[in-house]
Amino acid sequence: INKLKQQKQLAVADPPKPPAPSPVKPAAKKVGQVFRDCADCPEMVVIPKGSFRMGDLNGGGYSNEKPVHTVNIGYKFAVGKYEVTQAEWREVMGSNPSSFKGYRNPVERVSWNDAQDFVRRLGTKTGKQYRLLTEAEWEYAARAGTATKYPWGSSVGSSGNANCDGCGSRWDNRQTAPVGSFNSNAFGLHDMHGNVWEWVADCWNGNYAGAPADGSVWNSGECSRRVLRGGSWYYEPRNMRSAYRSRLTTGERSSGGGFRIARTF
């Protein structure tokens, strides 16, 4: 009888396992949300999709800022709240090439190739895919819904809206300022104008004839030279207008050249 009981007990099937819980999807990030992908990663801000007119909207600009054209950005994306700092660069790259040392100062003396290396290494660290902004995304993010020369108006002002040669700040034409030293624009982004030039992804073209109208990168033209935007601490106010464009070869470095990161979702 005992053997029969044991056999019956052995024959009883294990209770069915409960179904595995469905993986929880992370909540979609909202427009305006500020986040980091790791404790020492750059802060990023979610930028809304939208349309804007790109180029010299106010007159007095340069031929490379024309023709004015409409760009439709049909996706939201994240942009660095600040220019990449020296501390953030050191965490990823293990060095600090900057002329003006400071934990919160933007990294400078980095080439376009260096910036591309940074976004690749940061992506390896976090598992996310980062990139430089496209030129159209940069101007859209810098304007933040405005059509004036600068996001605060058509004059550089005298109250210190940025760091440039003639902006009225204590860093003017002397050195970089710590990121976030000036008010943000309407999208919550700081230092889009002045402080350091910001590398973007696009190849250089001498005007906007044939430029993408959807916010994508312009991967044709003079691709040995890439576009920089926003002016810097030693350039005049006219060079940090929302529409102003500059360029350098991909390997050039300067004490006025940095960048900020972006990623799509």
Q: What do these coordinates show?
A:
The structure is a single chain. The longest helix is centred in the middle third of the chain and has 15 residues, at 112-126. With 265 residues, this protein is α+β, with helices and mostly antiparallel strands. A five-stranded antiparallel beta sheet has the order 1-2-5-11-6. The protein contains four helices and eleven strands, in the order αβββββααβαβββββ. The radius of gyration is 24 Å and the shape is globular. The N and C termini lie far apart (66 Å).
| Share of helical residues | 10-25%
How much of the sequence lies in strands comes to 15-25%
Average pLDDT number: 92
Q: How many helices does DSSP assign?
A: 4
Q: What radius of gyration results from the CA coordinates?
A: 24 Å
Main sheet: which strands, in order across? Answer: 1-2-5-11-6
Oligomer: single chain
